[in-house]
Design brief:
Blueprint lengths: L2 H13 L2 H8 L3 H15 L4 E4 L2 E4 L1 H24 L7 E7 L1 H6 L2 H10 L3 E7 L2 H10 L4 E5 L9 E15 L1 H6 L8 E3 L3 E3 L5 H13 L1 E3 L2 E3 L3 H9 L5 E4 L4 H6 L3 E3 L7 E9 L6 H13 L5 E3 L1
Parallel strand pairs: 3-4, 3-5, 7-9, 8-10
Antiparallel strand pairs: 1-2, 5-13, 6-11, 6-12, 6-13, 6-14
């Protein structure tokens, strides 16, 4: 049995269709169809069936998925030996929430490169929900993100990195004009400057505003935490961020905290991988560095 047929089958499942799999693998649609046809002949079973305009897995196809995953993971293990695992060579794919990547992980990544100079680190700054989903799909080896994403099921093994306080910040000038984010049923004519809609701490603060019936002027949506901070420092609006991201600005007085009834709220970061993922030497190195540099509490399967 040709392993590439199994890889094609798994890509179709992951990508959700023949066309997307063809784009992902840089194959023609006819090549995809041919390979699946050969695989079905070898297994004497139909793996996909057409329902409406979509090709979906048959029961036989659904049962095949875990067997294919096991085979492909075993092949990955063998490739690590080819890359000389004693020297931590090879590739590792890691997704990290932007705030953690900018402010908590530079020292860890520097040490990782020092200890594994021949490794290729494919690093992405990602939304927490996307990190969780890509860990499930197997396209990431490790993810570092905030656990407040609505659950993981039983598919991920996680290590808790710690709880981090969240605070509402503004420039001293803006705070003088709008010092109160506690009194309900108010209109506060300043913008809320924050990350994209699936940002965990944005969701927490917007829920707080709804519960308090506090209405802000409008929302300025940006993808860069440093840019958000620069606008807030220059009196443009307020933001709700993990305290560690604004520590220097608070100490210098460029930013100040505005009290809310969310005082004491925290957000918990986790380091995670798929529970069935083989822990390669590069993954072990990264996890160990997290243990050395960050206050990991415990490992758990959740």
């Amino acid at each position: 049995m040709d392993l590439k047929y199994l890889h094609t089958f798994r890509t179709i499942v992951s990508e959700g269709g023949f066309c997307k799999a063809a784009e992902k693998l840089n194959y023609t649609q006819s090549t995809i169809t041919f390979q699946i046809g050969r695989l079905e002949q070898e297994l004497s079973a139909n793996l996909f069936e057409k329902i409406g305009r979509k090709m979906v897995l048959t029961k036989a196809g659904e049962h095949l998925v875990p067997y294919v995953d096991e085979i492909l993971q075993s092949v990955d293990k063998l490739r690590f030996f080819e890359d000389d695992i004693a020297q931590c060579q090879g590739d590792i794919r890691i997704g990290i929430a932007e705030t953690m990547l900018c402010y908590q992980f530079p020292a860890i990544l520097k040490e990782f490169h020092r200890r594994a100079p021949k490794a290729r680190l494919f690093l992405r700054s990602m939304n927490c929900y996307d990190i969780r989903n890509e860990l499930f799909a197997g396209t990431l080896d490790i993810g570092v993100f905030y656990e407040d994403v609505g659950g993981f099921g039983s598919g991920l093994t996680t290590q808790t990195l710690g709880g981090y306080p969240l605070i509402l910040v503004a420039s001293p000038e803006v705070k003088r004009g709008f010092p109160d984010f506690v009194t309900p049923d108010r209109v506060v004519p300043v913008p809320f400057i924050i990350n994209e809609p699936n940002c965990i701490f944005r969701q927490l603060f917007e829920q707080y505003l709804r519960e308090k019936s506090i209405i802000l002027d409008h929302t300025i949506e940006l993808w860069s935490i440093p840019t958000i901070k620069n606008l807030v420092k220059n009196d443009v609006g307020v933001s709700f961020l993990p305290a560690f991201t604004v520590r220097e600005e608070l100490e210098s007085g460029a930013l100040v905290e505005i009290p809310t009834d969310l005082s004491g709220a925290t957000i918990t970061a986790v380091c995670a991988h798929h529970k069935n993922k083989w822990i390669s030497p590069l993954m072990r190195l990264f996890l160990d560095l997290c243990s050395e540099k960050l206050p990991i509490k415990k490992a758990a399967v959740i």
